[in-house]
Fold this protein.
Amino acid sequence: VQLVESGGGSVQAGGSLRLSCAAPGYRYDTYCMGWFRQAPGKGREGVAQIGRYGESTYTDAVKGRFTIARDNAKNTVYLQMNNLKPEDTAVYYCAADRWLWRASFVLSDYSLWGQGTQVTVS
């Protein structure tokens, strides 16, 4: 299974971007999905997670600004990012795991990862 992220880019502070994560040709509706990010010189951190039934979890830094959603018919998960700040600049990664049944931003809990998409906020 390959996860493919898209939608990254450069935006001014206060702007918005929507990231997409697709799993072409594979049903992932039974998977827990997450978005992570890695800023230059920092470790990878969890941003948002969505469970099989649509339950979502966010890190405190993005609550009220980011929204995670999934469209199982399109095998796609989205991360809508509003009111972006320079500190949101990072490479954003999509992750998935079939056997994860709890809220988690632990990297090793996710078995599938995408290649990442760059988000730059100036």
In short: The chain has a mean pLDDT of 94. The two ends are 34 Å apart (CA to CA). The CA atoms of residues 97 and 108 lie 10 Å apart. The chain has no helices and eleven strands.
